[in-house]
Every structure is written in structure tokens, then in C-alpha cells.
Write a structure and sequence with these properties.
alpha+beta, 2 domains, 10 helices, about 20% strand, disordered C terminus, plasmid
Amino acid sequence: MTLEKVYSELMDLYNTSGKEFFTEAAAFLSDCLPGREHTILGRSEEDGWKLAASTIRDPDETEFLRRAAGKEYKDNGKEFFCFTSQRQGIRSHLAVTLSVRRRGTAGLWIIESQAGEKINPDKSVWRIGQLMAFFLQLSQDERLRVLNRYLDAATGLPGRMYFRQTAGRIQEQGHQVILCGFRWDKYREGIRLKGSEEMGERVRQLAVKVASLELGNLYALSEDTIAVISIAERQEVYARMESILEEDGMGNVIKAVMMRPEPKQEIITEMEELFSMCSPGIIWYRMQEKESVFAPFLKAASPQKEEGSAEINEAGADGKEDLMEEFFRSL
């Protein structure tokens, strides 16, 4: 296939396949260079190496390649190189550096073969690599344009920067709101076991569930965390948040926090502190500023003991409802 034909096919894929472009591009490369596995890794200074697409189905195997790139890639201008080790069953491999002029390395294209012949870095491979670098950089540029509009590219929600600015204006103007956060626990471990696409879809479904609570505007603080700015009453906010945790399985994987923004408070840092003290299935709430205590609200059916909450837990299941009523009367 001529280079012009490859470019035309890739451009058609780019214009029609949307977020699935690199998955379809990897399949297309498998047709161009049959009998080989193809993996495309993207690179950024902030996030390091990330899997864009692969013809390899096992996430542990693609994670091997991602880690190998992180350890062994050197920015020395080489167009091709090999890792010091390769996956089990692979007889030959080649890592093609996807470089963009004046912008450095945008990614890697890793070609692997189970056959005995060596993969030669010939001119056709180099030219296809140049095309893949172009599309990888084009994709990253479009993602940056989305982020520059304060949208999270994965969820389509306003992102971390927009949340910080909005919450900052609320602090300055002294409005009474409640900030809520939902975090998928052990998200990185989930990516290793289930893959980034499946975990990303789970967080998007979580965002849909949170939006259905109609508490307020949603924000994507990170790939595993959804935040809400709500003007509802605290009792109502808590009850609706609890309904998420009570869904099948959600209480085992979702952390939830609530807080009121205080003047001169670093809100995201405060929320991270709450998340660090929280366990899945529990809602942590910051009651006051410095002299505060943390109040974990547990399900009546499964009381647990949490550090800093002895009074609530020692009351046990029998005294829990009275304590909750007393707490809400104090709000």
C-alpha cells in the first residue's frame, strides 16, 4: 500500500471514528503489516505514557509495554529502538518513536512479532510512523482545545480548573453552598485489572447517576472523581448522596465527602484530605473549620468504627438514629 493510500485511509478513519480512532488505526496497521501486534502509546509531560490503542487484548500485557516505555525510552533523537526485554512468546519487536518537529516525542508505536524474523526499521515503517505521529499530535491538540474551554475531555463535564475558579468566587462572595465529592476507590488498580476504557466508562456512568440526583452542577476533578456544587439543604444533600452508595456494589467502591467552603480555604486540598480519611461506602462531612470533627455516616445495616468518630460508633445501631436526628437539629 502506498504512503498516499495509508494517509488517505487514516484521514478517513480520523474524520469518522471519533474517540475510537486509535483503536481502528491499530487494526488498520495490522492489515498493513499482517502477522504482528501493534500498540500505540501517547506521551505528555504531565501524565507520562498512556495507552492509546493496541491489538493486544490482555491489559496486563499492554501494561508491560507501557511500563517498559516509561523505564527505557530516552529522548536522544533515535527513530527506532528496542526494549531490553519483551513479552512472553514474542520473538522480535521494534519501538518506533512518533516525533513531531519542534514538539518532541508525542508517542511510541510498538510492533511485535511471534515469528522468528527480525522486524526491520525500513523506510515504509518510518513513513507510517511519521503519519501516526501527525495524527497523535492532532488528537492531543484537539484535547487541549477542549481543556482550554474548561471541559474534561473524558466526561464532557467542566473540569478541575473551572471548579476551582467557581468555588473561589463562591468563597469570595460568601454564598452558602455544599461541596460534594464522589471518588472511585482504587481506580488505578482497576485500570490495571480491567483496562482504562472500562474504568473510564464506569466513571462516566457514575457521573450520570450523580447528575440524576439533581443536586447542582457537576465537575470532573480528575479521572476518578466527580464533584457537585449544591445549594440544597444539608439533610437533603446527604440523603441523596447516600442513595448512590446504597445501589448494588457502589458502597464497596465509592468514597463520598461533603464540606462547606470557608474563607481563604484551599478547597481542593481540603477535599483531598477528606478523601484520604474516607473509606468506600462512607460519607465524610467537615462540620466547622478548625475546631471541627469528622462525622462518618454509616448505613444502619452495617455499622463500622472509624477513627475520630468513636461517639457515633460506640452508640451502635440502636443509638444511631437518635444521634443522626440530634446532629441534623444542630445544623
